[in-house]
Input
Amino acid sequence: MDTEAQPTERDRSSRPADSEEISDTPGPEERSRSALLSRLAAWVPGGRITLALLLCLLSLLTLNTFVVRPFQIPSGSMEPGLRVGDRVLVNKLAYRFGAGPQRGDVVVFDGSGYFGEADYVKRVVGVGGDHVVCCDQEGRIRVNGRSVDESGFLFPGDSPSTVPFDVVVPEGRLFVLGDHRAGSSDSRDHLGSPGGGMIPVDEVIGRADGIVWPFDHATRLHRPDAYARVPSAAADAALTAGGAHG
Output
């Protein structure tokens, strides 16, 4: 009598020889890495816990050196946006790949030899080639012939400047001001000093991108729109030349 062949248990569990399977067995690289960590942990006092702490510390040092750096606001020169004691994260990579500081950026820089032996935080008002003047008929700062409305970030009650100035920013330098103009020592106060109060771009540590402490004041820092319509120095020069010949 014909009978239908029944699959054996082996038939049910058999798989093609070329099927891909995920193995839980660690490969040579994983075993080598694990062995290295075990040897390091045995060598370090405190074992794996100490090793883990050291690795965390190394990661933080690497971030602080090459990527971001915490910075504590030392004075009220950038109020109301940045208050005394606020901690901001400074993006150290912001200007490392071709792009330079832009008008309106809040930057942290080394002021040694220019402002004093310390790091400072200010807002960029003029970049290389810019013509910066104070003030127009309404008391506003003009950059490349365009008046800038700074009311969105200027300290309440402050004027854009009580010190008149008319400067052209050299290439590779920055003209910087504090948002609390009445309480800020900035480029205006060093116009007669070496460098004319202009900070070399090379001395910029990074761009302040956000407040991280205290938590109730934490926020991202954005470039204000006030400078968006300021023409480039080259465009302003062309317009001026055209007007002169017209």
Summary: Residues 36 and 60 are 22 Å apart (CA to CA). Residues 1-25, 56-66 have pLDDT under 50 and may be disordered. The first strand starts at residue 68 and ends at 72. The chain has two domains: 28-66, 68-245.
